[in-house]
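Ligand-bound model needed. FE2/S2 (inorganic) cluster.
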Amino acid sequence: MAGSNPNAKPMNLTLKVWRQKNRNTQGGIVDYQVKDISPDMSFLEMLDVLNEDLLRKGEEPVAFDHDCREGICGSCNLFINGRAHGPEAGTTTCQLHMRKFSDGDTITIEPWRAAAFPVNKDLSVDRSAFDRIIQAGGYVSVNTGGTPDANEIPIPKEIADRAFEAATCIGCGACVASCKNASAMLFVSAKVSQLALLPQGHVERKTRVENMVAQMDKEGFGACTNIGSCAAECPVGISLENIAILNHEFLAAKATSNNLA
Amino acid sequence: MFPDSKIPEGPLAEKWDKHKFNVKLVNPANKRKYDVIVVGTGLAGASAAASLAELGYNVKAFTYHDSPRRAHSIAAQGGINAAKNYQNDGDSVHRLFYDTIKGGDYRAREANVYRLAQVSVNIIDQCVAQGVPFAREYGGLLANRSFGGAQVSRTFYARGQTGQQLLLGAYSALSRQVAYGKVKLYTRSEMLDVVVVDGQARGIITRNLITGEIEQHAAHAVVLATGGYGNVFYLSTNAKYCNATAAWRAHKKGAYFANPCFTQIHPTCIPVSGDYQSKLTLMSESLRNDGRVWVPASKETAERLRAGQIRVQDIPEEERDYFLERKYPAFGNLVPRDVASRNAKEVCDEGRGVGSSGLAVYLDFADAIKRNGETWVSQKYGNLFDMYAKITGENPYEQPMRIYPAVHYTMGGLWVDYNLQTTIPGLYATGECNFSDHGANRLGASALMQGLADGYFVIPYTIGDYLAQTPPKPVTTDHPAFKEAEAEVRARVQKLMSINGTRTPDDFHKALGHIMWEYCGMARNAEGLRHAKAEIQKLRREFWSDLKLVGTESEMNQALEKAGRVADFLELGELMIDDAYNRNESCGGHFREEYATEEGEAKRDDENYAYVAAWQYVGDNQPEILNKEELKFENVKLTQRSYK
Ligand SMILES: Cc1cc2nc3c(=O)[nH]c(=O)nc-3n(C[C@H](O)[C@H](O)[C@H](O)COP(=O)(O)OP(=O)(O)OC[C@H]3O[C@@H](n4cnc5c(N)ncnc54)[C@H](O)[C@@H]3O)c2cc1C
Ligand code: SF4
Ligand code: FES
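Prediction:
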């Protein structure tokens, strides 16, 4: 606890950071030293310090994705010491704080690695494959207007709560980065379950799961072999139960497909 | 002459329906002949882009994010208001209208606010139909809570993640239209200018943030849904990328900017912990329902506490000052945001603040824990307590939280008429980037409502009226105005790249934020504002002569992106100062120390300042022209707010 934090002294650290000019060039690890890092800093604030330093020296700052810095937008995506979002469970990179590290540590920072997530530059990757999977069916087909009164669709609280849990996926891609097959099953299953659980999603449940899974395969994500690293590393706790729901939905859909194409 | 605000005639409750009947419609077969650009894919932009595409228009949607799902809207926690009256506790469209007008300290337009309250009910229906998992009661119907001191329970929520769920709903509707080919989505694409052809908005200039390419895009109309400008203060609860560039560029092309000094400062945020601080985290307002706000009663005790000579637990009850309960016995810890924020600043200014910086007050749950037990508290606020512990490393069950006010929301923005059209015909503004509905202070859970009202239910009607009067001929980028605008954008980018000075964009941004917070933050006065104006002008000159960038403009260059945004903040900041200086009254989030009641509360001047200040750009380094839109109140009586 701060104040009583045994680690409250500023730290000096060695960073091993992946640098890559753009999608078409080879990258490599470059070493940097950062000094006087406060344990109360967030991990990204520590990178801000490095970047300000680099820029002042006339060197290119390290590109990385971030925005809300509150653990909700899903932008931040660093692979820290071999783990997606770093050492603290249930925590996005932006919510990780330097008090989890010690003076003198060496920290390796890499981008997500997956064929479907090409590197833009340094630590920034292209996750538009996730958008295309949602475009393939991650919605209820209703137009604006003409919808019934909200309370005409009662939904048991337990179901609503489960759907909500699935819907909290932040689309960060840590599941893919943590999976040795680079499978996107946890991400896809979160959306499929949310909409399969809710009555609003029932009309299109078969085509939805078929189309989303087809798009997932097309994007080059790997197969799921039920290892579970995805759920273990997911910062918001999306559970493996969703993958079971997806598999069930998928088999049911295949058995009685509405996809006439 | 002030441009017409186009408020429809007739009784308040009938204006919108009459207007919807009177607007011109585009023939269904012709809709596909019109192209509309929507910049921004947060709540306001995604809802507009999806709805316009559903109607048949061809939409091009732009965002600087890598996906629409990342927009700042995702971070909204508390909830969304709607006058459903599901709780049978006396809510109505009129009550929501009244609360919003009063909460905004009588500086918003009656007609706009009434429409907002009217369509609020449709928003909830729409979101539920999309599969947004709002909180529910055991009977399966939707749950509500009362929020931000409202006397009725009209707030719909999805745990502490309402913005996320609403945005994912709008994103799903948008994604569906992308799949149909009706929306073309441009991600990591930053709008850097509006193109105006013969007085009408006809396109935009963008920079691809991955390749650095500058592009021209043409359309029959342009909608800006680019969010608020709270980051002019550097530190705020906004996401790091939130910026004013789109709105500011539109302003410089002729769109008036309204009430720029109206900013909201939220009382319950985690305090600054050091110079490296990059943003501030909001702790939900709901904490004030059970937490008690206090500081040591004397400066001496506070000093000993800060020096670590005593612990907070050692301070006896009689040496604690529960200042909100003391000063506002009727509302206590639940006074509105602006009042709570100002009082926290006051006690810290007196030297009674806590934490190492002295810029914090306690929010204490000891009584709630004693009364109801730790389990009860953790069930109600567990996720917030965890977040606090993660960020500060302190355990809020054992010692009180430290909180301090932080910039949160900007009520000011692009001036729009009743149709949400700016002063540039064909250019519209929706969501937080316009000024329209919140007056001088926004009520909790009303920004999400406004963004979705604008996007789902207002712009689809009002833009049709404009397009119906525009010939359905294809628009192209052939007009010389496109080349000119592109050349200007290129020149500016190259200028930024070529300064080759010594200071980073962040360095300038922090310096600007410091000036704004000190002189145009929670309390303002004429002398401070004059000083701040000179400081900003000086800082701007330094920026353009001493900025340091590396790399090139034809690749991903995040420092360059940042520099462009800071350059615009440096201009907007000065306009905010001018606006605050001009408004010789205190109202809502704008507190001028010279205009206070004897008890130190905000004192409005309805006789002289019941107007919207709409600023008109006339040229670089020239004073902007102030245009006044008089506000007419025909349905509410203006009263002084009192929370004693
Ligand atoms: C921490 C926090 C909590 C909040 N909680 C609540 C709450 O509980 N209830 C409530 O009602 N309100 C809340 N608010 C306020 C509310 O979230 C915002 O006002 C609202 O979401 C703004 O939505 P928007 O669509 O207007 O803008 P944003 O969501 O900010 O979206 C802006 C969009 O514009 C794009 N953009 C901007 N500039 C450009 C450019 N130049 N080129 C291309 N694209 C651009 C961005 O990429 C983004 O897509 C909260 C705000 C904060 C900070
Ligand atoms: S399932 Fe978890 S890890 Fe995967 S994208 Fe969603 S939030 Fe990230
Ligand atoms: S920056 Fe938004 S989740 Fe980390």
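Residues A 66-69, 71-76, 92-94 surround FE2/S2 (inorganic) cluster (ligand 3) (CB under 6 Å).
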